[in-house]
Amino acid sequence: MNMQLWNPFQEFEHMLERYNKSGGGNLGNQMNTELGIADWAPSVDVEETADKYLIKADLPGVDRQDIDVKLENGVLSIRGEKQTEIETGQGTKRHRTERFRGSFARSFTLPDAVDAEMVDASYRDGVLSLSIPKEERAKAKSIDIKVS
């Protein structure tokens, strides 16, 4: 009988790998069932100011033409694909690949009071930035109180 050294960390890593590949989740990234076919989901920051919502998505290594942003029926969707790098060097062996590649998707349900016609998107240094203005009726208004 041969004895093997048990490595619990390696077993845990394999378990997480199987979980992610089965569509069980992307550890903290929520996706609806329609978008569940994606290989990975980019990390995002969502902020709100008095007059707009700001969404920033990390998409390192993704070409701008491979990103599709849609706002439909109050749902903002970010989809695309990060292309696989092709090895060109002879004699090169890849020992480990941890960077995400393949199709990606995220979606967000927006409040009713956003101005869908004025959404602004920019992409710089691997970060997709979306600015979604609020309609006038959604902006907070101050009311003066008179003292008598």
What is the fold's blueprint, element by element?
Elements: H1 8-21, E1 44-48, E2 52-58, E3 67-72, E4 75-82, E5 102-109, E6 120-124, E7 127-133
Kindly describe this structure.
With 148 residues, this protein is mainly β. It has a domain of 89 residues: Immunoglobulin-like (Sandwich), CATH 2.60.40. The strands form two sheets. A four-stranded antiparallel sheet has the order 1-2-7-6, with no helix packed on it. The protein has a three-stranded antiparallel sheet with strand order 3-4-5, with no helix packed on it. A hairpin with a 2-residue loop joins β3 and β4. The chain is elongated.
How many whole angstroms does the radius of gyration measure? 22 Å
The major β-sheet equals:
4 strands, antiparallel
| Mean of pLDDT | 80
Strand fraction equals 25-35%
Helical content stands at under 10%
Q: Give me the oligomer status.
A: single chain
Distance between the termini: 94 Å
